[in-house]
Amino acid sequence: MKKNFSNKLVGQIGENLVVAELGRRCVIATTFSGNVPDIDVLAYKDGVSIPIQVKTVKKGNLSVDAKDYLEIEFEGDKQIVKGKNRDIDRGIIFVIVYIGKNLGDEEFYICTKGNIQDLIFKNHSKYLAKNKGVRPKNPKSTHCSYNKGDLVKYINNWKLLT
Predict the structure, then answer these.
(1) What is the pLDDT of residues 106-140, one digit of tens each?
(2) No. of H helices and E strands in the chain?
(3) What is the spatial distance between Cα 81 and Cα 146, in angstroms, rounded to a whole number?
(4) Measuring CA to CA, which residue among 82, 79, 80 is closest to residue 71?
(5) Element (H or E) spanning 118, and its range?
(6) What's the pTM?
(7) C-alpha span between 33 and 21 (Å, rounded)
(8) Which CATH architecture has domain 6-160?
(9) How far is Cα 144 from Cα 146, in angstroms, rounded to an integer?
(10) What are 34-72's pLDDT values in tens digits?
(11) What are residue 47's phi and psi, to 5 degrees?
């Protein structure tokens, strides 16, 4: 049976694009190829090490499980967002890479895991409010997505790293 490596390839491309861009900015960086939880790239400059989480998108939105970021309780099928998960390291740097068809077409959005948590809190709460707390197709799903429009203020925000 043939294996489909397309998701792994997309992640590999994104991580290596981040390392290359950091190199252009005189920052030493290396990938961990999925072997370290929450850290895809480790950057180093001026005696400071910076762990980075890379999310790569070829097309469409980014999807997460809102339970990884939020405290969610259920009353039957109704979801109630009680707040943000306090076990998250809100300072971890996130680089979201939208890869294009050709080299040089990529877009980088740089923020913190805390920024992503805030975004998921907003998006998931808004979606639940619109549907009176019950997801229409699968009430138990805690899937949440975000897109470029949600990230626009973080485009090329490399100063967060340097």
Answers:
(1) 999 999 999 999 999 999 999 999 999 999 999 99
(2) 3, 9
(3) 17
(4) 82
(5) helix 113-130
(6) 0.90
(7) 17
(8) 3-Layer(aba) Sandwich (3.40)
(9) 7
(10) 667 789 999 999 999 999 999 999 888 999 999 999 999
(11) 80, 5
